[in-house]
Amino acid sequence: MPYYVYILQSEIDNSYYKGFTENPANRIIQHNNAEMNYTAKKIPWKMVCLIIFENKRDALIAEKRIKKYDKARLVVLIKSEKNILNTNYPTVG
Q1: Mean pLDDT of 76-82
Q2: What is the pTM of this model?
Q3: Beta-bridge partner residues of 46
Q4: Are 29 and 36 in contact (CB under 8 A)?
């Protein structure tokens, strides 16, 4: 089972939210339906980065590291080849 680290961007103020999930399609719906308290005030959100991992441990380690990134490093990651949204990856959609 794949695991994902994702970055959302608020369409209200362009701020970023970083998280971990097993189901990215469902997760963005939860954020935009105000099911997550932390992100509810900045709806709507768009997913701007999605990074896939083979195991949960690696995904959680990456999430913890990415949560410390400043905006410049986030933008580099969003534009990188690690972001499967920049490819035609078959599980995204």
Answers
A1: 97
A2: 0.91
A3: 9
A4: no
